[in-house]
């Protein structure tokens, strides 16, 4: 399998363009280097040092959280569900205790999805002991906004998380559909691309107080693009960031292009024989990347040498690719709903290990539908999320990574449903802590599920005791809200760098920032400014 099949790859091997052996990080923002040239002083390296810890990571870890014990009826495992939890203001260090007791009788009697009226006093200022209403609390944190909250519907939920979700920013980002949108590894930039073939990079407002607007609230993204990369001649379908701010883009023009945040011009072009649908930087050594194409082949590339290291023929269209977090394995998704696993060490050689068929047991989708996206759960690489065109997002439990070489090493842990995904490249993604899952939908709505086992199929047995039965195979417990008047192609949780409030611990949605994109080229930014509360249980 070491011999390339494409003329473009043969040309690359014969003439590597005398490229430098290492790619070094630019020292300035000058552009103008010819296409194929590298910024002076830049390096792509698996040993790149991570950025400094974010402001939220420097917060105290002590928790004043009070909880009730919930029992998983399937496994017998006890789970803590918060009654009270703490929130710290990043700007002042002020600590608050928020009461998450069950909703009042008037709230419980209201229709699902309708606005709830919170009790008068839910928050206590730890330093002064003063109790305050949620509105006073919002003002104390600088979260108050003149905008009306978006209506959020809760379906089969015990705890409603998105209790005060507001649109805080709207950007006309592209001319046409936005197919892909991802944050950089350090959370400082957002890249977007789509039908207009342009790749735009947006700077995240790290100090959001500086962008405060009395009517709109603080912006998450700078209004003007930080960079606009031009070079592709057809739709851009996927993109990937490296740890050192390099950006790869995959296009229907049959190429992958390499960019750097400090320069306007393209640094490398990697030619394929057909549309390139997906790609991913190697997480350990980012001198390498993997690409998938509808020609049925998955390729591993060496960037400095601009050549194919190895390839594998999947014998059907490749629609999704990803490296495992340790970089030792690669996952490939196909048009017919197959997910194939490869060992890719040593020397980045692809060795087939196993395959799972991502499909329903019966019905119209029992033959398998296109896999549109794959992501490993943050902090738990044994969990793999797979999105497909049968309107399902599935979470697979692979046990330890060593079990990947056995077919039996993969079990379907949860099947998330509620959204509509029949033909487009919609994909589900995790929040940065893995506590939430979000996905766009063909109906213009955004759907949010919790990945923990603390509220599915719930039943109450008194004001202070809750008993939860968790369904391991299906989860139709979600919250959803209308975001666009057309298909929502992308929905993301923003990283911690874009959030104004940090909660201890962080398994709740207060302060979460959500970004969405759709067919009209618009990016919308939502922020959840309300604390979670208990819904009616029967």
Describe this structure in words.
The protein is mainly β and 538 residues long. Among the domains are: 119-147, no CATH class; 150-173 and 409-537, no CATH class. The protein contains three helices and 40 strands. Strands 1, 2, 3, 4, 5 and 37 form a six-stranded antiparallel β-sheet that branches. A five-stranded antiparallel β-sheet has the order 6-35-31-30-29, with no helix packed on it. A hairpin with a 5-residue loop joins strand 9 and strand 10 (189-194). The longest helix is centred in the N-terminal third of the chain and has 8 residues, at 7-14. It is globular, with a radius of gyration of 24 Å. The termini are far apart. The model is unreliable at 1-36, 43-67, 102-121 and 453-472 (pLDDT under 50).
List the keywords:
39% strand; 5-stranded antiparallel β-sheet; 538 residues; disordered N terminus; mainly beta
Q: What structural class results from the helix and strand content?
A: mainly beta
What is the averaged pLDDT score? 77
Radius of gyration, in angstroms, nearest whole number: 24 Å
Instruction: State the helical fraction.
Output: under 10%
| Distance N to C terminus | 59 Å
Q: Main β-sheet: number of strands, strand sense, barrel status?
A: 6 strands, antiparallel
* Helix count, DSSP H or I runs of 4 or more residues: 3
Outline: globular
Low-confidence stretches: 1-36, 43-67, 102-121, 453-472
- Topology, number of strands: 40
Relative strand content: 35-45%
InterPro entries: WD40/YVTN_repeat-like_dom_sf, WD40_PAC1, WD40_repeat_CS, WD40_repeat_dom_sf, WD40_rpt, WDR44/Dgr2
Keywords: Repeat, WD repeat
Protein name: WD40 repeat-like protein
Organism: Coccomyxa subellipsoidea (strain C-169) (Green microalga)
